[in-house]
Amino acid sequence: MKRIAFHLHCLARGGAERVVTNLANQFAKEGYEVFIATEWQAEDEYQIDDAVKRIHVGLRDEDQNKGRVTKFLLRVKYLKKFVREYKPDVLIAFAKRANYRALMAAGNMKIPVVISIRTDPKGHYDSFTDKIQNKWLFPKAAGCVFQTKGQKDFFKPLLQDNSRVILNPINPKYIGVEAPMEREKSVVHHARLVDFKNQSMLVRAFLRVHEKHPDYVLKMYGDDSHDGTREILEKIIADNHAEDYVFIMGGSDSLEKELPKGSVYAFTSDWEGMPNSLLEAMALGMPIVATDCPCGGPATVMTNEVDGLLIPIKDEDALVAGLNRLIEDRDLAERLGNNARKIADIGNSKAVFAQWKDFLESVM
Questions:
Q1: What is the four-CA torsion angle of 337, 313, 315, 202, rounded to 10 degrees?
Q2: What is the mean pLDDT of residues 221-240?
Q3: Which contacts of 209-212 are long-range, i.e. CB under 8 A and separated by 24 or more positions?
Q4: Secondary structure of 21-51 in the HEC alphabet?
């Protein structure tokens, strides 16, 4: 029986954590022995299959008062101990620091390490210390999984020889949902309220859309990241007396029912890896206006004027024009939405798992 081990910080509800949980559960059902090596346990986490073994490799109570460098080295030490004890056939790391730890812990032990890039490398992998670690550690990787071609091109030639671009699996609840017979007059958006998703531009743009289409409202779904974004949005709404038509809805567990009610979907991020929210909106058949943000996530899955409208980042005028266009041309909107649904053909859990399985088997 082949052994697969995943390494990441925790299993808190987030994009990388959902992907790992999904993959781990599917590999376990396929008969693999699966481990998830995490550094800590969060309050609200994804559930793993009983067959998946979770191992703590993080700091211990007696380590908490030690220095930063010492803590870093201890984290590598504990992960190395895990690798030696459980001897996985492959170790897969998710997120930057997990990538570095995995390569330091197992890179010289003849156990292949697959790393994954989950965000825009510009601004996240290009500091002075990152460049040193990238040059030293990344050639040790047996392979890498990217979400977009833009990510892959950034690391050329360090991670070109054995790598794949694989989408995030789309939550099945967003696939196969029929559009309502008549959509409500609303623009919808769902994402964590956080600075880089530029929801403030969306609110400002919608104020202008509402002047032309006063019967439309904006509904923004998503949890608060507590970085001050929600307060900024609330101030824009209050300053413009827009409380009757701009709504911060908060988080929801039934977005597959709420989002399709809307007439248009807006995606406004300044940068992303592969945005799950965009994949979900596409799978629901939403007419979408999306920023063509680095590192190329939207452009990887969307073609402008075919299954959505792609606009430049931070371009409020283009966002206003795109929203107005889809509100006013419903034939175009529904055509784009119907084409967007095809993302489920390559982004469903079964298809994504097959790509991961094929890649990891080639590495092992």
A1: 60
A2: 97
A3: 209/320, 209/323, 209/324, 209/327, 210/242, 210/245, 212/324
A4: HHHHHHHHHCCCEEEEEECCCCCCECCCCCC
Helix H or strand E segment including 321: helix 316-328
Q: Which residues are within 8 A (CB) of 83 and not within 5 positions of it... i.e. 6 or more apart?
A: 5, 91, 105, 106, 109, 111
Residues 293-307, buried b or exposed e (16+ Cβ, 10 A)? bbbbbbbbbbeeeeb
Query: If you count DSSP H runs as helices and E runs as strands, how many of each does the chain have, helices first?
Result: 14, 13
Three-state secondary structure call for residue 297: helix
Two structure tokens written together for 134: 């990238």
Neighbours of 321 (CB within 10 A): 17
| 3 state DSSP class of 138 | helix
- Residues counted in the chain: 364
Residues 11-67: pLDDT tens digits?
Answer: 998 888 989 999 999 999 999 999 999 999 988 899 999 999 999 999 999 999 999
Tokens of 154: 């950034």
CA distance 61 to 126: 33
Structure tokens, 290: 């999306």
Closest to 256 (Cα-Cα) out of 231, 234, 236, 285:
285
Give the single-character DSSP code of 167.
P
The answer, yes or no, to whether the previous bond of 157 is cis (omega within 30 of 0) is: yes
The residues, any chain, with a CB within 8 Å of residue 102's CB and separated by 6 or more, are 7, 79, 91, 92, 93, 113, 115
Q: What is the rounded distance in angstroms from the CA atom of residue 206 to the CA atom of residue 203?
A: 5
